[in-house]
Design goal:
- This protein is an alpha/beta fold.
- The protein is built from eleven helices and 14 strands.
- It is about 35% helix and about 30% strand.
- The strands form three sheets. It has a six-stranded mixed β-sheet with strand order 6-7-8-3-9-10, with helices on both faces. Strands 2-1-4-5 form a four-stranded antiparallel β-sheet.
- It starts with a strand and ends with a helix.
Length: about 300
């Protein structure tokens, strides 16, 4: 087990930032660690990295206690904070060499730097000063710096911030690739990103874990409602459409478009198609819609 957290609690004054949480993450897992602002995500990640040492409970990384084996733990972690501090007057390759030396790397350091630059798509910008780079490329430098020492665990806080859509896909591919051999905690507010690359999702709210499973099972556990959007060529009445087997409810969008909610969330597209054929009605479009992770997130973290 790469990361093992048991009964973790952290209090700042009278505020309990993390409230008795427990979870485990194995090697080869990419876990989305999500929650609203102030939920306890950053505090938890800072405890795992050894940045915060005053807490209750047990935290182990690769079998090492973060309190008693802090240096060994830090050597095995690559941590990219949301606001990644860098020396803006250093060149990209110079900065990566500096980081490599901080980790006391030995052997073919330059070869590793070249490999990481290629992996993170920094070839064109590698001879520029960091201060001259766009925000997106600075984020790439940050990612490169946490990969340079080949850590076993990656903790990434908003790694695609400031990137354009093409760059986001490229960085996601990098994370998915390195995640096959490492343990990755990915904190982000982009739900599509979580569903695209994460094996599992941990949702934290008000310092407590409210969900810990793959995204599909989390949606199922919240009564994942199914809706089928259908657009007909002809105008159809509600009474007419209620004749379709297994229809629970109908919501009109326009005279020819309806949202159809089936009984027990079953897929009734075949029933709708058969109904249209039998009644000589033309179906222009039909789309199967499930509750999104974003909707489930809002339900689990809403203020009551």
């Amino acid at each position: 087990m790469s990361i093992h957290i048991q009964n973790l609690t952290k209090t700042f004054g009278t505020q309990k930032a993390v409230n008795n949480i427990s979870f485990e993450i194995s090697k080869g897992e990419i876990v989305g660690f999500i929650g609203p602002n102030g939920a306890g995500k950053s505090t938890t990640m800072k405890i795992i990295t050894g940045y915060i040492t005053d807490f209750e409970g047990s935290v182990q990384v690769n079998g090492l206690d973060v309190r008693t084996k802090a240096i060994e733990v830090k050597k095995s972690i690559g941590y990219l904070p949301e606001h990644n501090p860098m020396y803006l007057d250093m060149y990209v390759t110079e900065y990566l060499l500096f980081v490599a030396r901080m980790y006391s790397m030995k052997g073919a350091i330059q070869k590793q730097i070249t490999s990481i630059i290629e992996l993170t798509g920094l070839q064109v910008e590698q001879h520029k000063k960091i201060g001259a780079l766009s925000k997106g490329y600075r984020q790439r430098v940050g990612l490169a710096s946490v990969l340079i020492h080949n850590p076993q665990v990656l903790i990434l806080d908003e790694p695609t911030t400031g990137l354009d859509p093409n760059q986001i896909i490229e960085i996601r591919n990098v994370i998915a690739s390195v995640g096959k051999e490492k343990t990755v905690i990915l904190s982000t507010h982009i739900m599509q990103e979580v569903e695209a690359i994460c094996n599992r999702v941990i949702i934290i709210n008000n310092g407590s874990i409210v969900a810990n499973n793959d995204s599909h099972k989390i949606k199922q556990s919240q009564g994942n409602s199914v809706t089928i959007s259908v657009e007909f060529l002809e105008t159809c009445s509600k009474d007419m459409l209620m004749q379709i087997p297994m229809v629970a409810d109908l919501i009109p969008v326009s005279a020819t478009q309806w949202l159809i909610k089936p009984i027990d969330n079953v897929d009734i597209r075949q029933n709708i198609f058969n109904f249209a054929v039998q009644n000589n009605i033309t179906v222009l479009a039909m789309q199967f819609q499930e509750k999104t992770l974003e909707q489930v997130f809002q339900e689990l973290t809403k203020i009551t």
